[in-house]
Give the backbone structure.
Amino acid sequence: MVKPFIAGNWKMNKTIREAVDFSNQLKNLIAGLDDRDVIIAPPFTALYPLAETLKGSNIHLSAQNLSDKAEGAFTGEVSARMLAGAGCAYVIIGHSERRTLYGEKDAVINAKIKIALASGLRPIFCIGETLDEREENRTFSVIERQIKEGLNNLITDDIRRLIVAYEPVWAIGTGKTATPEQAQEVHAYIRHLMENAYGKNIATDLPVIYGGSVNPKNIATLMAEPDIDGALVGGASLEIDSFIRIIKF
Ligand code: PGA
């Protein structure tokens, strides 16, 4: 049984001040709630201020992206070591917006996962099929490819530090959630693939979280499924009320 893992992906929203105000409220509202992991993924600019705001709280920080390179002449990029130094514990890798809008391929995602792990960050590794792929009955083969290539050459100790987020692309920001049964089917498949590759214990302990139009109304039924261990929440994590209701589902 994995501890519920609820992460808010703020995407390109909130200034430092807005992020700090939100985090101060959140910190007070969930003080002492330690039977779940709560993570916020703010924009890069707010990471360090939030690390200060959230010191001593039960809320952890994630970045939304990182460079696949260690350091050097890569204008505009942010490295894994910088994120770790800013107080980040996690990093979202392979989000569908990165894959589709910024052309990130499985090989780059694999490099990012490796460099994140080498700096002590825990990757939140996102996978998921598009609507066309689902309609062409390719969901399972797409998931299998993303896992195989994204996790290429990782060792068992690396996998222990991973969180996998299943985010069907057609459900992200569309208000169209996968039904709990649709999500469960893919989550069970992900666990099955992970068991085949890395063994039963690793697969059982791996947090596999769902993302795509999660809201306060659908979180409980999603979380009731045996293979759904948490949620990666976009839009509904931007308002304190809805995020709190999701955290306390
Ligand atoms: P959404 O985004 O909850 O707004 O659909 C989820 C995500 O992209 O992680």
Summary: The first helix runs from residue 16 to 29. The beta strands are 5-9, 37-41, 59-63, 90-93, 122-127, 163-166, 208-211, 230-233. Residues 9, 167, 172-173, 211-214, 232-236 surround 2-phosphoglycolic acid (CB under 6 Å). The domain at 5-247 is CATH 3.20.20.70 (TIM Barrel).
